[in-house]
Design goal:
Elements (H helix, E strand, L loop, with lengths): L1 E5 L3 H13 L3 E5 L2 H10 L4 E5 L7 H11 L6 E5 L4 H10 L3 E4 L4 H12 L11 E3 L2 E4 L4 E4 L2 E3 L3 H13 L3 E3 H9 L8 H13 L8 E4 L3 E4 L8
Parallel strand pairs: 1-2, 1-3, 3-4, 4-5
Antiparallel strand pairs: 6-7, 7-8, 8-9, 10-12, 11-12
Length: about 230
């Protein structure tokens, strides 16, 4: 992989740089947000490791500019000491694809980056999927509801694709985590954060709710009055 590390902690950045290079990856690094954004825009990376608190430009602003202004869809792994659920949701809403809390094991960082790089792989199907007015095209990774395009980051997209493929069945949390993250299981709040973002984008703007939490088990996508099978 060609990886960009945007981190102002020199020791951490150096350790991560050395570890990734030892694994055979090509690595660039930036110690501030402005330089990091410039590198992320002018180069094509397979993945970006992004610290939240940066001099010059914070990670949230950088991520938003990367997505909205530059139109770059490079997978972003946000890594920060802030571990509240609200912080994770803010990062995901800004365009990050995954979130790790410091201190993070370097092996897990690399594994998460590999998972992000492989986004869309095992779930991709040849046919479009439709539930009510929600449509997903796995050949182009596009989602529309009522004809309105919905931009989803890779992980919420994978969750939605799995739920649509099995609709109206309940999909267990463990099944979702195994499908999306493989062996690099996230902390307990990560799935909740991605689920919150998915509902904000797919359900909240519309009158009919399709995404449902089945407490103690998992999640499902179904028309409200459709019986479970």
């Amino acid at each position: 992989m060609h990886v960009l590390i945007i981190e102002d902690n020199r020791d951490l950045a150096s350790n991560m740089f050395d570890f990734m290079e030892a694994k055979g990856h090509v690595v660039d690094a930036a110690g501030d947000g402005i330089t990091g954004l410039h590198l992320a825009v002018v180069n094509d990376y397979d993945a970006i490791v992004l610290d939240l608190m940066l001099p010059g430009m914070d990670g949230i602003t950088l991520c938003r500019k990367l997505r909205a202004d530059a139109g770059k869809h490079t997978p972003v792994l946000m890594i920060t000491a802030r571990d509240e659920l609200e912080d994770k949701i803010e990062g995901l809403e800004a365009g990050a694809d995954d979130y790790l809390v410091k201190p993070a094991e370097l092996r897990e960082v690399e594994l998460r980056l590999r998972v992000l790089q492989r986004r869309g792989g095992s779930l991709t199907q040849k046919r479009d999927m439709t539930v009510a007015d929600l449509c997903l095209d796995p050949s182009t990774f596009t989602v529309k509801r009522g004809g309105t395009p919905i931009q989803l980051p890779p992980i919420p997209y994978k969750i939605l694709e799995l739920l649509m493929a099995r609709s109206p069945q309940v999909v267990l949390r463990d099944d979702i985590e195994r499908t999306v993250w493989g062996e690099a299981r996230p902390d307990s709040d990560s799935l909740r954060a991605h689920w919150y973002l998915l509902r904000e984008l797919v359900d909240k703007p519309f009158q009919q709710k399709l995404l449902h939490t089945v407490r103690g088990f998992g999640y499902q996508l179904k028309i409200e009055d459709e019986p479970q099978t």
